[in-house]
Amino acid sequence: MRSLRTEAQGHIKQLRALATALWMKRSASKLWLGIREWCGDSAYERYVQAQRTNPEKSCLLTPAEFYVERVNRRYSRPNRCC
Amino acid sequence: MKRPISVIIWIVVALVGAGALGGIAFHRGEPLNATWFVVAAGCCYLVAYRSYSAFIAARLLTLDDSRATPSERHDDGRDFVPTNKWILFGHHFAAIAGPGPLVGPTLAAQFGYLPGTLWLIAGAVFAGCVQDFIILFCSIRRDGKTLGEIAREEVSQRGGFIAQLAVLAIMVILLGVVALVIVNALKSSPWATFTLAATIPIALLLGLYLRFLRPGRVLEASFIGVALVLFVVVAGQWVADSPSWARVFTLSGVTLAFALIAYGFAASALPVWLLLAPRDYLSAFIKAGAIFSLAAGILLVRPQVLMPPLTRFIDGSGPVFAGKIFPFCFITIACGAISGFHSLISSGTTPKMILRESHARFIGYGAMLMESFVGVMAMIAACAMTPGVYFAINSPASIVGATSDAAAATISSWGYPLQAQTMTELARSVGEQTLLNRAGGAPSLAVGMAQIFSSTIGGPRLLSIWYHFAIMFEALFILTVLDAGTRVGRFMVQELGGRVWKPFARTGWWPGILISSALIVGAWGYFLYQGVVDPLGGINSLWPLFGISNQLLAAVALVVATTILLKMNRLRWIWLTLIPMAWLVIITMTASYQKIFDPNPRLGFLSYARALAAQIAAGKIPAAKIADTQRVIFNQRLDAAVTAVLAAMIIVLIVEALMQWYRILSSDPKSVLHETAYVATRWTEDFSGASYAGAHAEPEASAMEG
Questions:
Q1: Which of B81, B146, B485 is opposite residue A80, by nearest beta carbon?
Q2: How far apart are CA B704 and CA B706, in angstroms?
Q3: How many CB pairs under 8 A join A and B?
Q4: Do B476 and B228 contact (CB within 8 A), yes or no?
Q5: For residue B545, what pLDDT is reported?
Q6: Mean pLDDT over all residues of chain B?
Q7: Under an 8 A CB cutoff, do B95 and A43 touch?
Q8: C-alpha to C-alpha distance for B442 and B184, rounded to whole angstroms
Q9: Quick one: CA torsion of B241, B244, B248, B250, rounded to 10 degrees?
Q10: With contact defined as beta carbons under 8 Å apart, do B282 and B203 qualify?
């Protein structure tokens, strides 16, 4: 009986460790996605996705074209403050 | 049970905040620990966010999450992009946090730590955050329209035009004054000049990498860039130690001013992907890192605040800038408490990316609270050095003298003991020839930051590296404001020119690009040059001018907000925007009047011009300097005229707004609200836009029925 309990406790410990590891992995992945989105790394993927769901499709830009177009638009209006 | 516990917790937070604030306000004698400032500010912000912003969201604006935002209705993956609220908070904060909240509080420390700290906290809670939040809300309800467009629709055509002119005016003055801050930090400093100059080829390298090698891979390019920038900070020491290289990078104020003007022109005219964008990426990462490091450093070191709560200079005789505590403390602090420029960001990119209306509270109100906290940290860093050292760094040579002995004697006579040796040793320990007469706030803030950082990592050995890291951090993101602002200014000039001659408005037409770039660079370059050659140090004239224009733009934004609230039938709560607006009008008008007409030559532009003219007439100016003096006289009269035009603009706008308010209150059918029509959201309540894939897949998969 005692050995069964010890074994169960061992499994619970393992499960907890697994859950913690999964939680940490998910949090790290969320953080990574957040940083990519904040700095603009994922902007092209977003654009492609939006183009796919948009019924009025226009010609898809290449990553280089999209990057140039994006920074041109971004820096043509106030985007840095005093 | 949950609610009483929450109420008790909030009462405790409020009491702790009130206690810390009381401690700061009434403490006399021994130096105060910086922890008091952090606790007071933190608790006040928490209580204000929990109660005041919630009240504005619920009762004044009635934010509605069932309403589709512009990012949902126009989602194009370019301008309109549904964005997670934490990420958008980061975007918004990176956009609003500039040099203002660092430099303003540092300069205002000449009145002592108390007035500036109180205004940073109260001004942000009751004015700055309210402005940012309400303008963001107004823009969300109008498809992301700009402040100028909203003013044109809701106030009047003339009101919109004045708002656009105010934006251009603030842009020119802002660029001139921030450039002056860089010049004062870099002049005669080969280490700092080399470091900043080296960031230009690094930015060009990143630009080519992001355009041709790995298009759009901002993160990896920024890592490479940050590593290179940190390397050149260290390499600057080798340059400063080499006599031949040190000579190349030891530049006078005037040479640096022309170098910055040339840089501004190049950044405006060159393709944006080559220089401007990569520099901005670099600056954003270093800015975020430095601000968080400063916060961590203050919490770890908990420095003593050595500046008294109030100095003798509240009477207006301050050496850093002239003018009494009212109105100049408020004008000088500017961005850390309320900034008109933020209304351009709140009605720019952010409303096009916001996911839900309720996020406007966190992003609009919350990001400004964080900016105010940056201001409080700058105040702590400036006040953590001895007052004598602070005044020696920030006062012009015409007041304290150009040598350590003269400065020590003058400043000690004011009641702030300072030994000449202290300044010599401090300059040597940070790797500079001298730290005297470096008005502008950047060097004194860098000394304060370096002292805090070196107490955490490296000790006195690394003081010089930390000092130059802090200077590089400040100069780098001031340069970003300079080149991004010049480019936006160029577009404004092209738009205005296009009304006269259409081809001029074409943004791809090279003659138009070159002429408009030259015009905008020439305008701010003129202010910069006059600041560099000003015998009173430049900052004395230009920073108040910048503060007035900035606060004027904030008054414009609050006039627009008040008009919209009246149209929304919120007469009962109109004081929420009306009181901050009235306060801003009072301080800008008083400051404008004093800057133009005050009989004290250090304060009044016209009296200074008259005093110089009298000196020429009396033969007191040597013949060789008469032409220079006449130029200074012209500059003073020009500054007076610019101030008068700014004041006249706000008077005209208020008259326009009063007429509109009368029409609204008398139920004139022409006074209608120009909100976009209600469209129900298709997103579920738990949709957070956490990832780009989810942002588009989720609405379709979980579209709300009906």
A1: B485
A2: 6
A3: 156
A4: no
A5: 92
A6: 91
A7: no
A8: 8
A9: 40
A10: yes
